[in-house]
Amino acid sequence: MEVILKKDVKGTGKEGQIVKVSDGFARNKLIPGGFAVEATEANKRAIAREKAKAAEKYAADKAAAEELAKQLTAAPVVVKTKVGDNGKLFGSITSMDIAQAVSEQLGTEVDKKKIVLDKPIKETGIFDVDVKLFTDVTAKVKVKIEG
If we measure between CA atoms, which residue out of 146, 91, 82 comes closest to residue 122? Predict the structure, then answer.
C-alpha cells in the first residue's frame, strides 16, 4: 500500500514522501497514529499544493531577509559607551547592545541571537559583525564603537 507520510517515521521515510509499506503497518500503525494518509490522487494533489505554498513562503522570506541585509550593510551602526584610557571600554559591547543600536538608528528589529560575535567587543574602533538573517543570507554590519 502506498501512503503519504505526515510526519517523519524512523526507518520508513520523511514528511511529505510517498512510500510503499505493508498493508498491516499502514492500517494498524501509520494511519491511526496520524503518521500517514493513504496515497489517493486527491491527497497527492493536496500535498503538491502544500509543497508549492511552502516554496513560495520560503522564497518570500528569503527575499525579505536579503532586503534587510541591504539595509543593514548600507550605513554603519554607532554604539556610544564609556571609555577609559587607551581606548579600553568600561565593560564590553555585546550582541544585545548592537541589536538595540540597530533598532534605534535604522528602525529595524534584529534578534540578538542572530548577531554573531566571537567574543564581546572591549575596545573602540570599527568592527565587522555578521548578522545571520536567514538560511543562506548573512549581512556584514559595520559597528563603530566610540566614547
Answer: 91
Task: Say how many residues make up the chain.
Answer: 147
Q: How far is CA 126 from CA 20, 118, 121, in A?
A: 58, 15, 10
CB 4 within 8 A of CB 16: yes
Q: Which three cell numbers stand for residue 69?
A: 541585509
Per-residue pLDDT of the chain (147 residues; tens, 9 = 90+): 999 999 999 999 999 899 999 999 999 999 999 999 999 999 999 989 999 999 999 999 999 999 999 988 888 899 988 888 787 888 889 999 999 999 998 888 889 999 999 888 888 889 999 999 998 899 999 999 987
